Amino acid sequence: MEHLTASTTVSNEHETPWSTANADARPSVAAQTPEANTARPATDPAVSISFSQQPEVDTPPGERMEEDTTLCDNTDNDVGGWWKTVQHRRRARHMHAEAQLPEDTSGIPYAPQQTTRKRSLNQNPPPFPLHDEKIILRPHGGLRLDSWTRPELANALWSTAGLSTKDRQNIIFRLRPQQNLAVISTPKSHVADALYKVRELRLGQLVYPITTYFAAPENSWKGIVPGLVPGTPSSTLVDELLTPGTQILQARMMGQTNIALVTFEGLKVPRYVRFYGAELRCYPHRPRQLVCKRCHRLGHWADHCPTPHVLICATCGTDNPAPSHPCTPHCRSCDGSHPTSDLNCPRRSRQTPNKAWVRKALKKEQRELQPPRTSTASKDMATTGHSQVSTQGTL
Fold it and tell me: Where is this region: Disordered (predicted)?
C-alpha cells in the first residue's frame, strides 16, 4: 500500500479592513437660526407636514450650510447663545476623543492610505470646516453686498470687529449674492464673539446697519411640531420638550402659528416629542424659497432687500407701474402666469436640505479617531519576519 503524504502551506491571513460606525442619517432646518418673521400670517407657508421623506436635493457645496427660510424673528435675537453653548460642548467632546485615542502597539506605524481622487468638474466652493463657528451677516439700509468687492467687505468687517492679522488666520468670508448675506467661518471662539457684536459696517463714506447672528451647527437638523399654544417662549420650549436619545439645541414658535421649529443635534428628526409629557408628532422641516415683497426676487425678505426703493407691481411684476397699467399675472421667477409670490410656483417648491457632505465628514472623522486593527498573522510577521506553516498528517 502506497502512502501518500500531502502537505499544505498556510499563507498569512490577509488583514481585513476594520469597520467603521456609520453616522446616523438624520433629516431636519440651514440656515439656522434666529428667524421667523413675526409679521407673517397665521398660516406659515414655510411649514411642511408630510409623512414621507423626500429625496435630498443636491445643492452647491458653497451653500451647504442650511438656512431657515423664516428668518428675521426679532423676538428671538438671543438664540445665538444656544449655538455658542453647543459649539463649546461639541469642541470639548471632540478634543477629549482625540486625547483618548489609544496608541498602536502592533509595531507597525499607521499611515492613512493615499487615494487618487478624480478631478471634479464642480466649480462651487468647498464646504466650510465641520466644527467651525459660523456667523451670518445680513445688511440693512439698502446695502447691496455684491456691489462691493469681497476684500472690501471683509476688510471693513475685520476693522470694525478689531481683528488682528493673527485672528484672521483660518477665517473664511463667503458671499451669497442671491440672498444678499455673508457667511463667516472661524475655528476661534473669541473671533466669532467679536464678529457677533458688530452692528454696523463702514463702506466708503457711508455707514450701514447690519445684523449678525450664529448659524445652527452643521451636525443638526430641524423639525416642526404642530399643536402648541401660539406665543410659547423659546425658553419654555427648550426646557419642557423631551426627546429620549436626542438633544434639543434650540426651539421657537414660528410667527403667530401653533407650530414650533425645533433644532435637534444630529442628522435625524425624531418621529415624536413630548411637551409637558404630552406626546406630539414631529416632522422634518422643508422650507420654501423666500420671495421679497419689494423687489420680488428669490432668496431674502423685504427687510433685507438691497433695493428697498424699487416699486414693482405685485401681480404682473412691472417696474414702476402706472396707476392704470394693464395688469396680467406674471411670475418674475419662472415666467408663469401667476404672481411671483404664489406658493405653487415651481421655483418655490419645498426642498430637503442636503446633509450628505456632513455625513461624509463625520464618517471620516470617526475613521481617524479609531485605532487601526491588525490581524494576528500580521502581528506575527512584524515580530518574527516569516509566516507560520502547518502541515497535515499522512492520509
Answer: 1-73, 338-395
What is the β-pairing status of strands 241-242 and 248-253? unpaired
| Total residue length of the chain | 395
Round to whole Å and give the CA distance between 296 and 138.
18
Residue 117's CB is within 10 A of a number of other CB atoms, namely: 5
What is the distance between the alpha carbons of residues 358 and 346, in angstroms, rounded to a whole number?
Answer: 27
175 touches 216 (CB < 8 A): no
Pair type for strands 206-214 and 278-281: unpaired
Per-residue model confidence as pLDDT tens digits over 4-24: 444 444 344 444 433 333 434
Residues 6+ apart with CB under 8 A from 228: 237, 253, 258, 259, 260, 275, 280
Cell numbers that stand for 116 in this block: 487618487
Secondary structure element (H or E) that encloses residue 368, with its range? helix 356-369
Burial (CB count <10 Å: 0-12, 13-18, 19+), residue 225: buried
- List, for residues 113-158, the tens digit of each pLDDT value: 555 556 655 677 888 998 899 999 999 988 999 999 999 999 999 9
Output phi, psi for 183, to 5 deg: -120, 130
- Under 8 Å between Cβ of 145 and 177: yes
How open is the CA angle 286-59-19, to the nearest 5 degrees? 90
Q: What are the grid coordinates assigned to 146, written together?
A: 455684491
- Rg of the chain in Å (alpha carbons): 27
Q: List phi, psi (to 5°) of 34.
A: -50, 150
Specify the DSSP element, H or E, that contains 206: strand 206-214
Contact 355, 285 (CB under 8 A): no
